[in-house]
Write a structure and sequence with these properties.
about 325 residues; alpha/beta; Rossmann fold; about 35% helix; binds adenosine-5'-diphosphate; binds magnesium ion
Protein backbone atom coordinates (compact mmCIF):
# COMPACT_ATOMS: atom_id res chain seq x y z
CA UNK A 1 0.00 0.00 0.00
CA UNK A 2 2.97 2.31 0.66
CA UNK A 3 4.03 1.95 -2.94
CA UNK A 4 0.65 2.69 -4.39
CA UNK A 5 0.30 5.65 -2.04
CA UNK A 6 3.69 6.90 -3.20
CA UNK A 7 2.71 6.49 -6.84
CA UNK A 8 -0.64 8.21 -6.40
CA UNK A 9 0.98 11.10 -4.56
CA UNK A 10 3.66 11.47 -7.20
CA UNK A 11 1.11 11.36 -9.99
CA UNK A 12 -0.93 14.02 -8.21
CA UNK A 13 2.13 16.20 -7.63
CA UNK A 14 2.97 15.89 -11.31
CA UNK A 15 -0.57 16.85 -12.28
CA UNK A 16 -0.42 19.93 -10.05
CA UNK A 17 2.95 20.89 -11.48
CA UNK A 18 1.53 20.45 -14.96
CA UNK A 19 -1.57 22.45 -14.10
CA UNK A 20 0.53 25.41 -13.03
CA UNK A 21 2.76 24.98 -16.06
CA UNK A 22 -0.22 24.69 -18.39
CA UNK A 23 0.37 21.06 -19.38
CA UNK A 24 -2.40 18.66 -20.35
CA UNK A 25 -3.94 16.31 -17.81
CA UNK A 26 -3.75 12.65 -18.75
CA UNK A 27 -7.34 12.45 -19.96
CA UNK A 28 -6.70 15.16 -22.51
CA UNK A 29 -3.65 13.58 -24.01
CA UNK A 30 -4.35 12.81 -27.65
CA UNK A 31 -4.82 9.10 -28.23
CA UNK A 32 -1.75 8.70 -30.34
CA UNK A 33 0.29 10.14 -27.47
CA UNK A 34 -0.75 7.38 -25.15
CA UNK A 35 2.47 5.57 -24.55
CA UNK A 36 3.81 3.66 -21.64
CA UNK A 37 5.84 5.80 -19.34
CA UNK A 38 9.45 4.79 -19.02
CA UNK A 39 9.65 1.10 -19.30
CA UNK A 40 12.46 -0.72 -17.56
CA UNK A 41 11.69 -4.40 -17.57
CA UNK A 42 12.34 -6.11 -14.31
CA UNK A 43 14.76 -9.03 -14.56
CA UNK A 44 12.06 -11.62 -14.09
CA UNK A 45 8.76 -10.19 -12.97
CA UNK A 46 7.35 -13.62 -12.28
CA UNK A 47 9.92 -14.24 -9.59
CA UNK A 48 8.94 -11.25 -7.50
CA UNK A 49 6.76 -11.46 -4.48
CA UNK A 50 3.81 -9.54 -5.92
CA UNK A 51 1.38 -11.84 -7.66
CA UNK A 52 0.33 -9.20 -10.17
CA UNK A 53 2.89 -6.61 -10.98
CA UNK A 54 2.74 -4.26 -13.85
CA UNK A 55 4.87 -1.62 -15.43
CA UNK A 56 3.65 1.62 -16.91
CA UNK A 57 1.08 2.65 -17.94
CA UNK A 58 -0.61 0.48 -15.40
CA UNK A 59 0.74 -0.43 -12.02
CA UNK A 60 -0.48 -3.23 -9.89
CA UNK A 61 0.01 -2.60 -6.24
CA UNK A 62 1.08 -5.43 -4.04
CA UNK A 63 -1.78 -7.81 -3.76
CA UNK A 64 -2.23 -10.26 -0.99
CA UNK A 65 -0.46 -13.56 -1.36
CA UNK A 66 -0.90 -15.26 -4.73
CA UNK A 67 -2.40 -18.13 -2.83
CA UNK A 68 -5.15 -16.11 -1.24
CA UNK A 69 -6.05 -18.99 1.00
CA UNK A 70 -2.97 -18.04 3.05
CA UNK A 71 -4.52 -14.76 4.09
CA UNK A 72 -6.79 -14.54 7.08
CA UNK A 73 -10.33 -13.71 6.09
CA UNK A 74 -9.74 -14.88 2.53
CA UNK A 75 -10.04 -18.39 1.43
CA UNK A 76 -9.76 -20.35 -1.74
CA UNK A 77 -12.80 -21.59 -3.55
CA UNK A 78 -13.51 -25.19 -2.72
CA UNK A 79 -13.20 -27.96 -5.27
CA UNK A 80 -16.13 -27.59 -7.62
CA UNK A 81 -18.95 -29.97 -7.00
CA UNK A 82 -21.50 -30.72 -9.67
CA UNK A 83 -24.68 -28.80 -9.16
CA UNK A 84 -23.55 -26.80 -6.14
CA UNK A 85 -25.67 -23.75 -5.37
CA UNK A 86 -24.25 -20.34 -4.61
CA UNK A 87 -22.00 -21.14 -1.73
CA UNK A 88 -20.95 -17.77 -0.37
CA UNK A 89 -19.10 -14.63 -1.35
CA UNK A 90 -15.61 -16.17 -1.33
CA UNK A 91 -16.39 -19.10 -3.50
CA UNK A 92 -18.23 -18.51 -6.72
CA UNK A 93 -20.14 -21.57 -7.85
CA UNK A 94 -18.68 -23.21 -10.87
CA UNK A 95 -20.24 -26.57 -11.29
CA UNK A 96 -22.62 -26.55 -14.20
CA UNK A 97 -25.99 -28.20 -13.79
CA UNK A 98 -26.58 -28.03 -17.51
CA UNK A 99 -24.83 -30.09 -20.04
CA UNK A 100 -25.91 -29.07 -23.49
CA UNK A 101 -23.21 -29.96 -25.97
CA UNK A 102 -19.49 -30.24 -26.29
CA UNK A 103 -18.04 -26.77 -25.64
CA UNK A 104 -16.26 -26.81 -29.03
CA UNK A 105 -19.66 -27.07 -30.74
CA UNK A 106 -21.12 -24.25 -28.66
CA UNK A 107 -18.12 -22.04 -29.43
CA UNK A 108 -18.38 -22.79 -33.14
CA UNK A 109 -21.94 -21.48 -33.16
CA UNK A 110 -20.89 -18.06 -31.86
CA UNK A 111 -20.62 -15.33 -34.49
CA UNK A 112 -16.97 -14.71 -35.31
CA UNK A 113 -15.79 -11.18 -34.53
CA UNK A 114 -12.77 -9.49 -36.04
CA UNK A 115 -12.11 -6.13 -34.40
CA UNK A 116 -11.01 -3.17 -36.43
CA UNK A 117 -7.35 -2.49 -35.76
CA UNK A 118 -7.72 1.31 -35.81
CA UNK A 119 -10.72 1.24 -33.49
CA UNK A 120 -8.80 -0.91 -31.03
CA UNK A 121 -5.82 1.39 -31.19
CA UNK A 122 -8.02 4.45 -30.68
CA UNK A 123 -9.49 2.87 -27.58
CA UNK A 124 -6.15 1.85 -26.15
CA UNK A 125 -6.61 -1.86 -26.61
CA UNK A 126 -2.93 -2.58 -26.98
CA UNK A 127 -3.04 -6.36 -26.56
CA UNK A 128 -4.94 -6.91 -29.81
CA UNK A 129 -2.14 -6.42 -32.31
CA UNK A 130 0.63 -5.95 -29.74
CA UNK A 131 2.39 -3.19 -31.64
CA UNK A 132 2.65 -0.99 -28.54
CA UNK A 133 5.11 -1.79 -25.82
CA UNK A 134 2.36 -1.26 -23.27
CA UNK A 135 0.97 -4.72 -24.07
CA UNK A 136 3.82 -6.24 -22.07
CA UNK A 137 2.35 -4.89 -18.87
CA UNK A 138 -0.97 -6.57 -19.63
CA UNK A 139 0.74 -9.82 -20.61
CA UNK A 140 2.51 -9.88 -17.27
CA UNK A 141 -0.78 -9.16 -15.54
CA UNK A 142 -2.44 -11.97 -17.53
CA UNK A 143 0.19 -14.49 -16.55
CA UNK A 144 0.03 -13.54 -12.91
CA UNK A 145 -3.74 -13.70 -13.04
CA UNK A 146 -3.66 -17.15 -14.63
CA UNK A 147 -1.26 -18.40 -12.00
CA UNK A 148 -3.37 -17.05 -9.18
CA UNK A 149 -6.56 -18.52 -10.65
CA UNK A 150 -5.04 -21.95 -11.24
CA UNK A 151 -3.37 -22.08 -7.86
CA UNK A 152 -6.64 -21.35 -6.09
CA UNK A 153 -8.84 -23.36 -8.43
CA UNK A 154 -10.73 -20.22 -9.41
CA UNK A 155 -12.12 -19.19 -12.79
CA UNK A 156 -13.72 -15.78 -12.44
CA UNK A 157 -12.37 -12.32 -11.77
CA UNK A 158 -14.39 -9.10 -11.58
CA UNK A 159 -12.81 -5.76 -12.40
CA UNK A 160 -14.09 -2.77 -10.47
CA UNK A 161 -12.89 0.65 -9.32
CA UNK A 162 -13.79 3.20 -6.65
CA UNK A 163 -15.41 5.57 -9.18
CA UNK A 164 -16.19 5.63 -12.90
CA UNK A 165 -13.58 6.31 -15.60
CA UNK A 166 -10.65 4.67 -13.84
CA UNK A 167 -10.15 2.27 -16.75
CA UNK A 168 -12.09 -0.89 -15.87
CA UNK A 169 -13.34 -1.55 -19.37
CA UNK A 170 -9.97 -0.76 -20.95
CA UNK A 171 -8.27 -3.11 -18.49
CA UNK A 172 -10.87 -5.87 -18.91
CA UNK A 173 -10.61 -5.86 -22.71
CA UNK A 174 -6.82 -5.67 -22.71
CA UNK A 175 -6.61 -8.58 -20.30
CA UNK A 176 -9.09 -10.59 -22.36
CA UNK A 177 -7.17 -10.11 -25.63
CA UNK A 178 -3.92 -10.88 -23.87
CA UNK A 179 -5.53 -14.12 -22.68
CA UNK A 180 -6.79 -14.80 -26.21
CA UNK A 181 -3.19 -15.22 -27.32
CA UNK A 182 -2.95 -18.05 -24.82
CA UNK A 183 -4.33 -20.73 -27.10
CA UNK A 184 -4.86 -23.40 -24.47
CA UNK A 185 -7.09 -21.15 -22.38
CA UNK A 186 -10.77 -20.41 -23.01
CA UNK A 187 -11.70 -16.92 -21.87
CA UNK A 188 -15.10 -15.32 -21.50
CA UNK A 189 -15.38 -11.52 -21.25
CA UNK A 190 -18.69 -10.05 -20.10
CA UNK A 191 -19.93 -6.48 -19.76
CA UNK A 192 -21.75 -6.43 -16.43
CA UNK A 193 -21.67 -2.63 -16.10
CA UNK A 194 -25.36 -2.60 -16.96
CA UNK A 195 -25.99 1.07 -16.11
CA UNK A 196 -23.22 2.25 -18.38
CA UNK A 197 -22.33 -0.47 -20.89
CA UNK A 198 -19.32 0.65 -22.91
CA UNK A 199 -17.66 -2.54 -24.02
CA UNK A 200 -19.47 -2.88 -27.36
CA UNK A 201 -18.63 0.73 -28.27
CA UNK A 202 -15.03 0.29 -27.31
CA UNK A 203 -14.73 -2.85 -29.42
CA UNK A 204 -16.75 -1.45 -32.31
CA UNK A 205 -19.16 -4.36 -31.98
CA UNK A 206 -22.35 -3.89 -33.96
CA UNK A 207 -24.32 -6.91 -32.67
CA UNK A 208 -27.23 -5.97 -30.42
CA UNK A 209 -26.45 -8.09 -27.40
CA UNK A 210 -28.53 -7.95 -24.26
CA UNK A 211 -26.76 -8.90 -21.08
CA UNK A 212 -29.97 -8.22 -19.20
CA UNK A 213 -31.76 -10.86 -21.29
CA UNK A 214 -28.93 -13.29 -20.82
CA UNK A 215 -29.01 -12.78 -17.06
CA UNK A 216 -32.77 -13.04 -16.67
CA UNK A 217 -32.67 -16.31 -18.59
CA UNK A 218 -34.55 -15.14 -21.68
CA UNK A 219 -31.48 -14.64 -23.89
CA UNK A 220 -29.52 -17.34 -25.67
CA UNK A 221 -25.76 -17.60 -25.43
CA UNK A 222 -25.40 -17.95 -29.20
CA UNK A 223 -27.23 -14.64 -29.71
CA UNK A 224 -25.48 -12.70 -26.99
CA UNK A 225 -21.84 -13.65 -27.41
CA UNK A 226 -19.40 -13.29 -30.26
CA UNK A 227 -16.17 -15.20 -30.67
CA UNK A 228 -12.71 -13.84 -31.34
CA UNK A 229 -10.59 -16.72 -32.59
CA UNK A 230 -11.38 -20.01 -30.93
CA UNK A 231 -10.73 -19.06 -27.34
CA UNK A 232 -12.26 -15.67 -26.51
CA UNK A 233 -16.04 -15.23 -26.18
CA UNK A 234 -17.35 -11.70 -25.64
CA UNK A 235 -20.78 -10.84 -24.28
CA UNK A 236 -21.71 -7.17 -24.38
CA UNK A 237 -24.82 -5.12 -23.74
CA UNK A 238 -26.50 -2.68 -26.07
CA UNK A 239 -28.94 -0.86 -23.79
CA UNK A 240 -28.47 0.27 -20.20
CA UNK A 241 -30.67 -1.21 -17.46
CA UNK A 242 -32.31 0.91 -14.77
CA UNK A 243 -32.15 -1.34 -11.72
CA UNK A 244 -29.30 -3.74 -12.37
CA UNK A 245 -28.68 -4.76 -8.74
CA UNK A 246 -32.04 -6.49 -8.62
CA UNK A 247 -31.28 -8.37 -11.81
CA UNK A 248 -27.78 -9.28 -10.67
CA UNK A 249 -28.86 -10.81 -7.39
CA UNK A 250 -31.86 -12.57 -8.82
CA UNK A 251 -31.66 -16.36 -8.74
CA UNK A 252 -32.17 -16.31 -12.49
CA UNK A 253 -28.78 -14.56 -12.88
CA UNK A 254 -27.02 -17.29 -10.88
CA UNK A 255 -28.67 -19.88 -13.08
CA UNK A 256 -27.82 -18.03 -16.29
CA UNK A 257 -24.16 -17.74 -15.29
CA UNK A 258 -24.13 -21.39 -14.36
CA UNK A 259 -25.53 -22.22 -17.80
CA UNK A 260 -22.89 -20.02 -19.45
CA UNK A 261 -20.14 -21.84 -17.55
CA UNK A 262 -21.67 -25.17 -18.46
CA UNK A 263 -21.92 -24.37 -22.17
CA UNK A 264 -18.73 -22.41 -22.80
CA UNK A 265 -16.57 -24.19 -20.22
CA UNK A 266 -14.25 -21.20 -19.77
CA UNK A 267 -10.94 -21.38 -17.93
CA UNK A 268 -11.14 -17.66 -17.19
CA UNK A 269 -14.15 -15.35 -16.92
CA UNK A 270 -13.54 -11.61 -16.80
CA UNK A 271 -16.49 -9.57 -15.60
CA UNK A 272 -16.30 -5.84 -16.28
CA UNK A 273 -18.46 -4.67 -13.39
CA UNK A 274 -19.59 -1.17 -12.29
CA UNK A 275 -17.63 1.19 -10.03
CA UNK A 276 -18.21 0.76 -6.31
CA UNK A 277 -19.59 4.20 -5.55
CA UNK A 278 -23.20 5.22 -5.91
CA UNK A 279 -24.87 1.85 -6.49
CA UNK A 280 -25.39 -1.58 -4.98
CA UNK A 281 -24.57 -3.45 -8.21
CA UNK A 282 -21.10 -4.52 -7.10
CA UNK A 283 -22.35 -5.92 -3.78
CA UNK A 284 -25.10 -7.70 -5.67
CA UNK A 285 -22.68 -9.28 -8.15
CA UNK A 286 -19.76 -10.27 -5.90
CA UNK A 287 -21.27 -13.64 -4.86
CA UNK A 288 -20.84 -14.74 -8.48
CA UNK A 289 -17.08 -14.20 -8.58
CA UNK A 290 -14.00 -15.86 -7.16
CA UNK A 291 -11.88 -12.72 -6.88
CA UNK A 292 -11.62 -9.06 -7.84
CA UNK A 293 -9.10 -6.62 -9.23
CA UNK A 294 -9.47 -2.99 -8.20
CA UNK A 295 -8.51 -0.35 -10.77
CA UNK A 296 -7.43 3.04 -9.42
CA UNK A 297 -6.71 6.06 -11.61
CA UNK A 298 -3.39 7.60 -10.67
CA UNK A 299 -4.47 11.19 -10.90
CA UNK A 300 -7.99 11.05 -9.54
CA UNK A 301 -8.37 8.15 -7.12
CA UNK A 302 -7.33 8.98 -3.57
CA UNK A 303 -5.50 6.59 -1.32
CA UNK A 304 -8.50 6.70 1.03
CA UNK A 305 -10.71 5.51 -1.83
CA UNK A 306 -8.38 2.60 -2.51
CA UNK A 307 -8.19 1.73 1.18
CA UNK A 308 -11.93 1.89 1.70
CA UNK A 309 -12.74 -0.12 -1.41
CA UNK A 310 -10.08 -2.73 -0.71
CA UNK A 311 -11.47 -3.22 2.80
CA UNK A 312 -15.05 -3.37 1.57
CA UNK A 313 -14.20 -5.86 -1.16
CA UNK A 314 -11.93 -7.88 1.13
CA UNK A 315 -14.84 -8.46 3.49
CA UNK A 316 -16.79 -10.09 0.69
CA UNK A 317 -14.38 -11.73 -1.69
CA UNK A 318 -10.72 -12.30 -2.53
CA UNK A 319 -8.93 -9.13 -3.60
CA UNK A 320 -6.25 -10.11 -6.07
CA UNK A 321 -4.63 -6.72 -6.38
CA UNK A 322 -4.91 -3.02 -7.11
CA UNK A 323 -4.05 -1.73 -10.56
CA UNK A 324 -2.81 1.82 -10.68
CA UNK A 325 -3.93 3.01 -14.09
CA UNK A 326 -3.26 6.16 -16.10
CA UNK A 327 0.07 6.51 -14.38
CA UNK A 328 2.25 8.65 -16.57
CA UNK A 329 4.88 9.23 -13.97
CA UNK A 330 6.98 6.47 -12.53
CA UNK A 331 10.15 7.03 -10.54
CA UNK A 332 13.22 6.35 -12.65
CA UNK A 333 14.66 3.65 -10.45
CA UNK A 334 11.40 2.01 -9.60
CA UNK A 335 9.50 1.48 -12.79
CA UNK A 336 7.80 -1.62 -11.49
CA UNK A 337 5.92 -1.88 -8.22
N1 LIG B 1 -3.86 3.70 -19.01
C1 LIG B 1 -4.60 4.67 -19.55
N2 LIG B 1 -4.04 5.81 -19.95
C2 LIG B 1 -4.76 6.80 -20.50
N3 LIG B 1 -6.11 6.76 -20.66
C3 LIG B 1 -6.73 5.65 -20.26
C4 LIG B 1 -6.03 4.54 -19.69
N4 LIG B 1 -6.96 3.58 -19.39
C5 LIG B 1 -8.16 4.06 -19.76
N5 LIG B 1 -8.04 5.29 -20.28
C6 LIG B 1 -9.12 6.15 -20.81
O1 LIG B 1 -9.95 6.56 -19.72
C7 LIG B 1 -11.31 6.62 -20.14
C8 LIG B 1 -12.15 5.74 -19.22
O2 LIG B 1 -11.74 4.40 -19.39
P1 LIG B 1 -12.77 3.20 -19.20
O3 LIG B 1 -11.99 1.95 -19.40
O4 LIG B 1 -13.98 3.40 -20.02
O5 LIG B 1 -13.13 3.42 -17.65
P2 LIG B 1 -14.26 2.73 -16.76
O6 LIG B 1 -14.66 1.48 -17.45
O7 LIG B 1 -13.59 2.50 -15.45
O8 LIG B 1 -15.37 3.74 -16.64
C9 LIG B 1 -11.34 6.15 -21.58
O9 LIG B 1 -11.33 7.30 -22.41
C10 LIG B 1 -10.05 5.37 -21.73
O10 LIG B 1 -9.57 5.37 -23.06
MG1 LIG C 1 -16.56 0.85 -18.17
Amino acid sequence: MDRIQQAIEKARALREARATGGALPVQDVPEQDWRPAEHTPAPDPLDTEDPLRLGAPLVVAPAPAEDASDSPGRRAAPEPTRGSPLSGPHSAPRAPRFHIAKPELVWQKLTPFKPDRKQMHRNRIVTYDRTEEAHISYDIMRTRLLRALRKNNWTSVAITSPTANCGKTTTSINLAFSLAHQKDTRTVLMDIDLRCPQMANMLGLKESHSMAALLDGSGEIARNFVRYGDTLAIGTNELPSRYPAELLQNKAAAKALERMRGELKPDVIIYDIPPMSGNDDVIAFLPHVDCVLLVAAAESTTIDDVDRCERELGAQTNVLGVILNKCRYLPEQDTYY
